[in-house]
Amino acid sequence: MGFSSLFAPNIDKLVAKQDVQGLVKALAHGNEGVRRRAAFALAHLSFEEQAQIMGARALGEFDDAEATNCLLQMLNCMGAQVREAAALVLAQKKGTPAVVAVIEALREKDQNVRYDAAQGLGKIGDQRAVKPLIELLEGPAVKMPVRLAALRSLAEIGDARALPEIMRFVNATLPGCFPDRGADVFFVKDVAKHLGRMGKEAIPALVELLPFGSGFYSPKEEVLAACRQVGPDSIGPLVTALHSRSERERSDAADILNTLGWKPGTSDMVP
Q1: Residue of 169, 171, 129 whose CA lies nearest to 153
Q2: Distance (Å, rounded) from C-alpha 152 to C-alpha 173?
Q3: What CA–CA distance (Å, rounded) separates 106 from 117?
Q4: CB 105 within 8 Å of CB 71
Q5: What is the DSSP letter of 128?
Q6: Backbone angles phi, psi at 64, to 5 degrees
Q7: What's the CA gap between 207 and 235, in Å, rounded?
Q8: Number of CB atoms found within 10 A of residue 78's CB
Q9: What pLDDT, in 10s, does the model give residues 187-234?
Q10: DSSP assigned state of 269
């Protein structure tokens, strides 16, 4: 046991002296109670934004109603960076109050807070977030990184009801979104990975993603993995893609069908 674990700092005195450095040091104490009191103390230091940010992050250690309520209150702080930190920590929690709070954070004016909220909802995986994320995707005055975070989270949540909106956004927005054609296909590979978990309903949408890249950047491996998982129901959309106007889509669909062991005139595939 180290020296700092034996001697607990007096949190009340540190707060009275507004000793931010002492409170930050207490976050590393071996005693959970000391760490907890230090985290709450920092979170309430409204005069010191960086201290509040550290307090919010430290509160992530404690999965209880008091810590969650403190973070919820921090969503109303003046500092955008404090609100962002609180939203990010709340996004890692699974309880109903946290989910509702992160959904509310999607309406924030600050784009960074919106981004963290949108991204966090995908990690939580709660289907209550599907409709608010779709509204964010289609809403005005939303920057592209926030839209992309919402799109990724919709795919990650895996609710098939979101498929039409996901593909409408992908087809309308991504082709002209990134001039170098690199960043969008990395993103599409990630979306394809999550869409594959939706089952057979997602196969037509996945096939539509094939033209977005080639070689290392292609989502072909993610589409193949999803087709393997779905089984024979994936053959129809792939065969249809053989007649696509896109040469890339035709080629990738043919490669996937060949890998699956499909033969013309059958609906069978190699297990």
Answers
A1: 129
A2: 14
A3: 6
A4: no
A5: G
A6: -145, 170
A7: 11
A8: 9
A9: 778 788 888 778 888 888 888 888 876 677 788 898 898 888 888 888
A10: -
Task: Give the span between the Cα atoms of 132 and 145, in whole angstroms.
Answer: 16
- Do residues 132 and 117 make contact, with C-beta atoms less than 8 angstroms apart? no
Say how far apart CA 100 and CA 95 lie, in whole Å. Answer: 9
Alpha-helical regions (H) of the chain: 3-6, 11-16, 20-26, 32-43, 49-59, 65-74, 80-90, 96-105, 111-124, 130-138, 144-157, 163-173, 183-195, 203-209, 220-230, 235-241, 247-260
Q: Which residue is listed with tokens 């053989």? A: 242
Per-residue b/e over 123-150, b at no fewer than 16 CB within 10 Å? ebebeebbebbbebbeeeebeeebbbbb
Share of the chain above pLDDT 90, in %: 25
Tokens of 185: 């296909």
Identify whether the C-beta of residue 157 lies closer than 8 Å to the C-beta of residue 127. yes
How many whole angstroms separate alpha carbon 200 and alpha carbon 238?
12
Structure tokens given for 53: 């940010």
With contact defined as beta carbons under 8 Å apart, do 34 and 7 qualify?
no
